[in-house]
Design a protein that fits this description.
Layout lengths: L4 H6 L4 E6 L5 H4 L12 H20 L7 E9 L7 E8 L8 H7 L11 H10 L52 E3 L2 E3 L9 H7 L3 E5 L3 H11 L9 E3 L4 E3 L5 E5 L1
Antiparallel strand pairs: 1-3, 1-6, 2-3, 2-9, 4-5, 7-8
Length: 256
């Protein structure tokens, strides 16, 4: 409820961003010594992830690489059998609210980039942003539900133009351009690409999913998702600077 109070003053969130720690970051590997293995160094993973997170926060809030942010909420999760990850909800200033599909296409992509034009981004998308093969290709995948459909709705449909809806999830542009790649033994195309921002993905080389928050239904779901389970937020308010803050190790909220 504390986080939702930001909406009363600044409006609904515009962008939902998830960043997951990459255990193969060079800074992590160069610190491994004496034949140590990554899974044995959770302290190292946490420190490097925190440094990347602080840099990403600066780029999002101060350099405003996605848009002019007036308020944000983020929560860091540490799970026993999963890597550290963070969920951001960004609220843009009124003049920069996302209201049309052209703005969406400027922020994210759901297509495999041309290998000849940008070989690094092409390789990073294949490595970090491809959903596992499912559906008819792999009906036994863990994402498949009892009704034999993917819980994440992959593979997506080919879409010529991005479509925003007030009553359902947005549909992002996904062309049938004939580009295919081999991922873990399966041939995949644009329908299996998870939405990403090219600049952020190339910079951080890890799984960074970006979604547009357009409908009220999505907004309610995302706030419950960020604060799911036992997560709780208690934050203080600086009346002089109008800044909401909390210990950055657990959960974080800020409004400027």
């Amino acid at each position: 409820m504390d986080a939702m109070s930001l909406i009363q003053r600044y409006g609904k969130p515009d962008v939902f961003l998830t960043m997951i720690c990459n255990p193969n970051w060079p800074k992590i590997k160069q610190e491994l010594k004496h034949n140590d293995e990554i899974q044995n160094r959770p302290d190292l993973l946490a420190r490097i992830f925190r440094s990347k997170l602080k840099e990403l926060r600066t780029y999002l809030l101060k350099r405003e690489i996605l848009g002019h942010v007036v308020a944000c909420v983020y929560a860091i999760e540490f799970q026993k059998r999963d890597l550290s990850h963070v969920h951001f909800l960004l609220i843009f200033k009124p003049k920069f609210k996302i209201i049309n599909s052209m703005q969406v296409d400027e922020i994210l992509s759901c297509e495999i980039p041309d290998e000849k034009q940008n070989s690094y981004l092409h390789a990073t998308v294949i490595k970090q942003m491809m959903h596992d093969s499912c559906g008819q290709l792999n009906p036994t995948n863990v994402c498949m539900k009892n009704n034999h459909t993917c819980k994440n709705k992959y593979p997506k449909e080919y879409i010529l133009h991005t479509s925003l809806s007030n009553n359902s999830s947005s549909l992002y542009k996904c062309h049938n351009d004939g580009v295919i790649v081999r991922v873990r033994g399966y041939i995949l195309d644009n329908r299996y690409v998870i939405p990403y921002n090219p600049y952020i993905l190339a910079k951080y080389d890890c799984h960074i999913n970006i979604e547009i928050c357009y409908s009220v239904k999505a907004m309610k779901y995302l706030y419950k998702y960020v604060y799911k389970g036992h997560d709780r937020v208690n934050f203080a308010v600086n009346k002089e600077t109008n800044e909401y803050y909390i210990d950055e190790i657990s959960n974080y909220q800020i409004a400027r």
